[in-house]
Automatic annotation (TrEMBL):
Gene: nuoF
Superkingdom in the source lineage: Bacteria
Gene3D superfamilies associated with the record: 3.10.20.600, 6.10.250.1450, NADH-ubiquinone oxidoreductase 51kDa subunit, NADH-ubiquinone oxidoreductase 51kDa subunit, iron-sulphur binding domain
Residues annotated as signal peptide: none
Molecular-function annotations in GO: 4 iron, 4 sulfur cluster binding; FMN binding; metal ion binding; NAD binding; NADH dehydrogenase (ubiquinone) activity; oxidoreductase activity; quinone binding
Identification of the protein by name: NADH-quinone oxidoreductase subunit F
Chain's role: NDH-1 shuttles electrons from NADH, via FMN and iron-sulfur (Fe-S) centers, to quinones in the respiratory chain.
Enzyme class (EC, first level): translocase
Subunit structure: Composed of 13 different subunits. Subunits NuoCD, E, F, and G constitute the peripheral sector of the complex.
Co-factor(s): [4Fe-4S] cluster; FMN
Naturally occurring in which organism (per UniProt): Rouxiella silvae
Pfam families: Complex1_51K, NADH_4Fe-4S
């Protein structure tokens, strides 16, 4: 029983239904190599390296339907197939995106801290399939425990002949390095991650060329998320049909999902795609704390649109959440209760995104701070007529295709949806005297007021 007096739904993890978490210990201590191998660990790697060709592994992953678990949901096998076939390009890199700086998201941290060998095995298989001789885990700098555990797991794997030269007697060489980042949210974008890894400023790169052809140090590079790579060993060990059979959705396999906010049992659980948000909120997270009413939720991190209680019965899958006007993202949802005002909540989010902008393109560099200024004024009750319309205009001007990368489009998602569903809270921040002044002078145009103000 936890501190809020709620006993969460009992979770019985099985290899058949929980490929990512069934090996985890009840005492939450890391699973080291002896225990991991006793629980069928590295079986997928042995099968892949000893019995399958690189092309066969890529085809298996593609057929499994595995999608990227970092938020975009792009086909992993298809991404792998974009790597060049030219054998003369013998220097290739596999990068693991372990930056995880999305507010409200902590799934990769759990996997790295408690199951480090699962990620090592996933990278070993993936590197073999991609013919990559070196891998890097680009780790969020604040994840100190994860860094310690991953480095120990790599050394254990090296001692067992699973990292280094001539792995499992196959002639395949692979080195794996943990690289801790300097703490910038923008490094979650794969080309900004590559720039940072090379020692450059973490600005996104222009695409094309894509990393698959010109990536780290100008060589073919594949970037995958922690959870994505952690799925690979089970797919290789148990097969495509098994992996597809876990899910009740068109999206295959399982997903680390959860709820944070003022719920009784905040946490993260491995669940099949198709599980509804209501089931996660009420049965796993225990519902809202006593005395609090549910108001809204973000499906997958701070950069996703808010949804309301009418969307709670949607299955947690990429298509359904997308049709509702948001994104599945990382599938770590945040619940908002009735005591939280949307204006200060969104202002806090926009301050984060504004601070974390790399400043490369004008809409993001100037537009996000402008939205913060307006939101601060609304929060103080000093807003002016036209402020809400200006925020809506900024959301359009910072939307998809209007900026150099996806940072600004993600940043304005919570803002545009909060205005959509809770416009009256934004209107309440406009000072009454401004309404009266506007009426007195015959309905002055908001844009004129804004020009004088800004």
């Amino acid at each position: 029983m936890n501190v809020y007096g709620y006993t969460p739904r009992e979770i019985i993890r099985t290899p058949e239904m929980h490929p990512l978490t069934w090996r985890m210990r009840e005492d939450q201590q890391p699973v080291w190599i002896d225990e991991y191998r006793s629980k069928n660990g590295y079986a997928g790697a042995e099968k892949a390296l000893k019995t399958l060709s690189q092309d066969e592994i890529v085809a298996l992953v593609k057929d499994s339907g595995l999608k990227g678990r970092g938020g975009a949901g792009f086909s992993t096998g298809l991404k792998w197939s974009l790597m060049p076939k030219d054998e003369s390009m013998n220097i290739r890199y596999l990068l693991c995106n372990a930056d995880e700086m999305e507010p409200g998201t902590y799934k990769d941290r759990l996997l790295m801290e408690q199951m480090p060998h699962q990620l090592v095995e996933g990278m070993l298989i993936s590197a073999f399939a991609l013919k990559a001789y070196r891998g890097y885990i680009f780790l969020r700098g604040e994840y100190i425990e994860a860094a310690v555990n991953l480095r120990r797991a790599i050394e254990e794997a090296r001692a067992a002949g699973l990292i280094g030269k001539n792995i499992l007697g196959t002639g395949f060489d692979f080195e794996l390095i943990v690289h801790t980042g300097a703490g910038r949210y923008i490094c979650g974008e794969e080309t900004a991650l590559i720039n940072s890894l090379e020692g450059r400023r973490a600005n996104p790169r222009s695409k094309p060329p894509f990393p698959a052809s010109v990536g780290a140090w100008g060589k073919p590079t594949c970037v995958n998320n922690v959870e994505t790579l952690s799925n690979v060993p089970a797919i290789l060990a148990n097969g495509v049909e098994w992996y597809k059979g876990i899910s009740t959705s068109e999206d295959t396999g399982t997903k680390m999902m959860g709820f944070s906010g003022r719920v009784k049992n905040p946490g993260v659980w491995e669940l099949p795609f198709g599980t509804t948000a209501r089931e996660i909120l009420e049965e796993y997270a225990g519902g809202m704390r006593d005395g609090l009413k549910f108001k809204a939720w973000q499906p997958g991190g701070a950069g996703t649109d808010f949804l309301t209680d009418q969307h709670l019965d949607l299955p947690m899958e990429f298509a359904s959440i997308g049709k509702a006007g948001s994104r599945l993202g990382t599938a770590l949802a945040m619940a908002v209760d009735h005591e939280i005002g949307m204006v200060p909540l969104v202002r806090n989010l926009e301050e984060f995104f504004s601070r974390e902008s790399c400043g490369w393109c004008t809409p993001c560099r100037d537009g996000l701070p402008w939205s913060v200024k307006i939101l601060r004024a609304l929060e103080r009750g000093e807003g002016q007529p036209g402020d809400i319309e200006t925020l809506e205009q900024l959301c359009r001007q910072l939307g998809p295709g209007k900026t150099f990368c996806a940072h600004a489009p993600g940043a304005v998602e919570p803002l545009q949806s909060a205005i959509k569903y809770f416009r009256e809270e934004f209107e309440a921040g406009i000072a009454k005297q401004h309404y009266n002044n506007a009426r007195a002078i015959g309905g002055i145009q908001p844009n004129n007021l804004l020009k004088e103000r800004w």
